[in-house]
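Pair request: fold both.
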Amino acid sequence: MFGSRSDSVGGLRRAWMLVPLAGALLVGGCMGGPGERRARYSCDGGRQVSVIFSGGVARVFDGGGPPIVLDSRRARNGFWYESATHSIRGSGRTMTYTIGRMTPLRCRKISGRW
């Protein structure tokens, strides 16, 4: 009616062969691309912030939660990324990180690949 037992076992075997491929694609998608830049900053009050710049967005990691995604804005010099609630602006080894209406944090780059 639905095929023989050997057909269903063969299909299951082929499906399991795809699992490692799917895992490799998932991990590969998380790895940095050639245009990706990473930097880590030390900010006022001892706060550590990591930023991944890629494809017109910046992903800011400032704690244990998910990254904050910021869109690129035109800056006269340096860089500027923002969302409705967060922004980063910087040039050289310094950056200003603003969260909502809080006083902006001054940050200094401590490591990074450019």
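--- second member of the pair ---
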Amino acid sequence: MLVDSTAVTGLNDPAFFDRYANEYDENDYEPTPTVDFLAGLVPEGGRVLELAIGTGRVALPLAARGVSVEGIDGSPAMVEQLRAKPGGRDIPVTIGDMADVSVDGPFRLAYLVFNTLFNLPDQARQVDCFRNVAQVLEPGGRFVIECFIQDLTEFDRHQRVATRALSEDAVNMEFLRHDPVEQAVTYQRVTFDEQGTTLRPLRLRYCWPSELDLMARLAGMRLSERWTDWDRSTFDASSRKHVSVYEKP
């Protein structure tokens, strides 16, 4: 059975992620490899744009390196979390859908990390994102994306149930349904504990690397680098994620 599209209405609205703003930084995340990679692409400075800037987990340490960072995010609550951090009020942020890229360029670099491109609801909006990023990049500017590669073997009849964490007091479970036609996975991450039941829904529309390369070409960009991770490890058939760099000629 495939995903009923009517059951996921709203999961890709930009402001949907307001609900996760207060807990977004609870997951341990070490930004240094990402920041090192991005800063290395703009050694002489220039304006840099982060799409889906969120709580500033990458933007703030990148700005601390002296990089002129600006952002776009659809979640006002996420941006409030950014503003509450040291240096957060110094980063210009536009509230809006990242696919529209409603800012004035030119930028030397734009980037989109944490698989966030896949939050856009369909192929058309992902193409819009590439096209609009290309329009605000300067000649020679680059667009960096970090994405996972979907492992289709993890599904049985397009479904999956998994236990993410288990203790005496709580259990975290994950329910997934896969739509191979839309290339979409709908998640429901559920926590059962003494406070009750907490639901964390999410829908991702994944892309294969070759599809992303075609989106870039349609936008007038070309692939210049692809690595498995921010450490520039070799990308090959065993890679489960990639960091891709597209360049505007």
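Observation on the second member. The radius of gyration is 18 Å.
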